[in-house]
Amino acid sequence: MKKEVIELQKKMYEEGMDAYYIPSSDFHGSEYVHSHFRCREFISGFDGSAGEMLVTEDAAYLWTDGRYFLQAEQQLAGTGIKLMKQREEGVPTVIEFVAALADEYLASHESNFVIGFDGRVVKDDFGFDLESALSVVGAKHTKVDGKNEDDIDFFERIRIKWDEDLVGMIWKDRPKFDTHGLWQLPIESAGVTASEKIKNVRDVMKDEEAEYLLLSDLGGIAWLLNMRGSDIAYTPLFYAYVLICPDCINVYLTDAAIESGAEELIRKSIGTQERINIKQYDDVYADVGAADVSEDGYFMTDNALTYSMYLSMPQHAMFLESDSAVEDVKMIKNDVEIRCSKEAHIRDGAAVTKFIAWLKSEMRNGASHTEISAANYLEKMRKEQDGFIELSFPTIAGYAANGAIVHYEAVPGKEEILKPEGFLLVDSGAHYIDGTTDITRTIALGPLTQEMKDDYTYVLKSHIAYARMRYEEGMSGRTVDEMVRKPLKDAGLDFNHGVSHGVGHVLSVHENAAVIRPTNELDAWIRSGMIMSDEPGVYKEGKYGIRIENLICFKDDGTGGIKNEALTCAPYERDAINKDLLTEDEIEWINSYHKWVRETLTPLLDKDTAAFLEKETKAI
Asked: Which helix (H) or strand (E) covers residue 550, if one does?
């Protein structure tokens, strides 16, 4: 067993715990987190962005989704940690597993079953669901003879220790929770002032009869205040909480942010219409607990609330968790944000096109490159573009078999050397002052097999199916997902990740409140103004991976439905397209898209790259 797991098990024994749960999150439910919070990675060695662990006295388990199955299998090899493939047949959820574990334990032991976790990094709904599942188990093992129904405690033999950071006790060289300063997003990019946004939020609170609103989601906080930061790699966010009270707004910041002059920037951004209190980051728990909520008043939160924060709320307050005040509004970009995003994508497309032209030339001329050197050159091209801030996620550059690992990240010294043959899958993006990009292109470095060309074309057909989709309110996410996958499934192919995710405006590249996946049977909730990805793929283990991704912006089609238009502006891999597999409508769509790419990017390119683009975008 991995030594970190053994050390944690020893600490669990000392603390009287039978199981310990470790998520991948921070205090705000973030996808990408500061290195201080990477407890699951420290214990398991698995560094994918999504996953959760459960450690028992003699075993350890890691759950992750289909994007990371291959990566997790490789990184967990030899650790003794069992991979639990989420949403695969016969694989229980973490909560189902814990409930079964507790049931088995109580049936064979006289002592109580104890599970622990750090409630500051565990979502509230996980805590609620765990309570519910364990109460059923507790009822099964609770003696009720001689007791009134109101006196029965179904947790008599089960304990949840929710305030235990055991990983922090054994992580000797844990990275310090260091934070940085803030900066104001120009109104020319934001489109709406912070004071206008706050006014709209207060209107929602009034409609919901909410006296207080606690915001924990870092993207929502940054959006509301028109502020950005650099506390987390690949996301221009900063650690903070916002508590909107009846007569003031409290903003909770780290010491480093306060010392860097954040208070003046925030007051300038919001204006004088609101009474602003800048407070210490950790003061939020006490202030939430002391909130003067009336007997019939609602305490409203966003959906990033943690279990510890929920337990800090006034017990008499009526709890309302909703995205209506910020998240639902943030996902629908205003006209300025859309216009700016289009401009950012054009500059980004120029950078990507320069990269593809350079890489193909290098391969033809026998140059030596690796996955990492190729990714570095692409980053260099982006840095030359006006308004570049940082990459929006670590570049995925997977050559040959590595392309089949959905979220592959090359390791220095172990990266593949590129050859003038086969596919290089490159998934990359950037934050600019006026928008956020996310694009995947699968590039032919040389000759391809017929299987490769056919698979690429089937992926392109699915990509086009989403691009040409007309959405009508009420269509479920599952319905949309099935429509996009149909060209692939008709050919006996499929992929194990979502079709589409939302994208923030100079925020997180993943707005997961908007996502299209096969398990979503609810309304897909696509609205005019939303920016989302279009990214089907095919992954053949040990051979190659293919993904094609554009960002698209939804807009009214004038007939009551919603259509989309491409924001991503870069050529597809012409050498990989098998025209015989395409319909006339699909051919027309590709030619129209390529004509737009050529006419849009050519003025931004040097003579040689423009000539390359001319060839790549000829009508097929």
From this structure: strand 550-556
Q: Given this model, what pLDDT does residue 566 score?
A: 98
Level-2 CATH architecture, domain 182-331: 3-Layer(aba) Sandwich (3.40)
Query: Where exactly are the structural domains of the chain?
Result: 3-170, 182-331, 336-590
Token pair in block for residue 63: 């759950």
**pLDDT tens for each residue of 272-309:** 889 999 999 999 999 999 999 998 889 999 999 999 99
Model pTM score: 0.92
Q: Which residues contact 535 (CB under 8 A, 6 or more apart)?
A: 440, 463, 499, 500, 547, 548, 549, 550
The CATH homologous superfamily for domain 3-170 is Creatinase/prolidase N-terminal domain (3.40.350.10)
| Banded model confidence at residue 153, pLDDT cuts 50, 70, 90 | low
Contact between 104 and 58 under an 8 Å Cβ cutoff? The reply is no
**Which amino acid is located at 192 in the chain?**
V
State whether the Cα torsion 69-72-76-80 is positive or negative. negative
Question: Mean pLDDT throughout 127-156?
Answer: 76
d(CA 283, CA 542): 51
What contacts 592, CB < 8 A, 6 or more positions away? none
At 250, list the tokens: 């409290």
As a whole number of angstroms, the distance between CA 95 and CA 50 comes to 17
CA angle 460/491/69 to nearest 5° reads 80
The pLDDT of residue 104 is above 60:
yes
Please give the structure tokens belonging to residue 609. 């790259």
What CATH code is assigned to 336-590?
A: 3.90.230.10
Fold agreement between 3-170 and 336-590: no
Distance of CA 203 to the CA centre of its chain: 29
